[in-house]
Amino acid sequence: xxxxxxxxxxxxxxxxxxxxxxxxxxxxxxxxxxxxxxxxxxxxxxxxxxxxxxxxxxxxxxxxxxxxxxxxxxxxxxxxxxxxxxxxxxxxxxxxxxxxxxxxxxxxxxxxxxxxxxxxxxxxxxxxxxxxxxxxxxxxxxxxxxx
Length: 147
Prior knowledge:
5-stranded antiparallel sheet; globular; 5 strands; alpha+beta; 5 helices
């Protein structure tokens, strides 16, 4: 098996989204996992700003953070750190995603883009919120019974 073919197969068949954007936040790579999670095909996403998957109320903050990171080469997120944020699907539905980022640098060390591996955790977050709600209700009832 040709290793290049293996890498292409892995890239397209991995269940998680792999999205690569350039220093301007323009999508350069969009795998099948990204299509499954967000609903955009590669041809719809590539060449578009990351804003297509960022909820409107978070776009300015995300854009400012990305520009500063590209300018300085410094991020507040450690390599491999798992981040959680809301995201937007093609149909307008908001989902919860967890992701890690990998800075992409040129030979001189200047950041030229970012790769992100993302997973839809909407169902898991909903279960967690329900469990937290149940625990809070149980604690409230326990305090009321002590009184």
